[in-house]
């Protein structure tokens, strides 16, 4: 189409591309349907992009059939110049179609077909996903997943989970669903993590992402009732780096972090070998956000004696936490120093103090004190660790010269 002059009124004011499905807003301006619907769905305080007049998200969009025919005719006339003809758009779906699919989802003979169509429509555009939330598709999908759990059937689970992740359940609605389904949703999603699928990665990743949403919405009462199999399964996810996506891995870490404030949960995590799994995951040098989540969880687990014992029993624990200081982010520095502070305060045996020298912990703390951008509270915490064991560390012949400069 290079060199061809396209009539300006054929172009969408938003995308600046030839309109495939021109619709006219209440302000009298015509846009391509996909562009203006995306604008209305994603922008806050929406207004007409051209006139700046108020344009509510539920604003009527009238198909401009005359302009569409003109565009199609122009495209046909210029086909020899490389212009593709714009196909006649299919009628836009309304909410009634999604209500129909929900009914089909509840019928054994048609539920798989309904799931496949929901999967296709969710991936198509934001408008469909908005309609799904408004018509109750998330609740219907969660009910389907719970039924699969109760009947020990995996048929349709992949599609149901993929649609759930696509449409992103609002937090307020997730809280309502948890009240309606009790803890069956949590149990069902944990069950999914233990099932075998093809492809394995996406199904399990979607299950963890859905679980993260539900755990974020869970009440303190529900979080306090989480059972050992819950933590065993999530810990298992941390060990399955080849069967879960990076997004799924971070979701699993978020789930643990949300559950950490309760002492009972911390003990259950330790018993499920979460400390070792977290250290092994961190030794793989993950991305920044993953490291921040891992260190955040390790800090909580090191707040209990069993957690500290498990941390020190792993040969790479102190080394990897030390290595991350000043290498990742201020958030990672904060968590790492607080972990070291707990170790220093409660389990500073001679062997532990010697290991802190050998793996460079003392040197790193001294370096942190000399960096101008280090937060004052973090410098104070690092100095507190050094001050507590300065006399012991001076006895080691391998102590870094930086130590004597700082202290």
UniProtKB/TrEMBL annotation:
GO BP terms in the entry: defense response; protein ubiquitination
Gene3D superfamilies associated with the record: Leucine-rich Repeat Variant, Zinc/RING finger domain, C3HC4 (zinc finger)
Domain U-box residue range list: 5-81
Catalytic reaction equation(s): S-ubiquitinyl-[E2 ubiquitin-conjugating enzyme]-L-cysteine + [acceptor protein]-L-lysine = [E2 ubiquitin-conjugating enzyme]-L-cysteine + N(6)-ubiquitinyl-[acceptor protein]-L-lysine
EC number: 2.3.2.27
Segments crossing the lipid bilayer: none
Keyword Iron-sulfur on entry: no
Signal peptide: none
Pathway assigned in UniProt: Protein modification; protein ubiquitination
CDD domains assigned to the protein according to its UniProt record, in alphabetical order: RING-Ubox_PUB
UniProt keyword list: Transferase, Ubl conjugation pathway
SMART domains: Ubox
One GO MF term attached to the UniProt entry: ubiquitin protein ligase activity
PROSITE patterns attached to this UniProt entry: U_BOX (PS51698)
UniProt xrefs under PANTHER family: E3 UBIQUITIN-PROTEIN LIGASE PUB24, WDSAM1 PROTEIN
Biological role: Functions as an E3 ubiquitin ligase.
Protein name per the record: U-box domain-containing protein
Organism encoding this protein: Gossypium stocksii
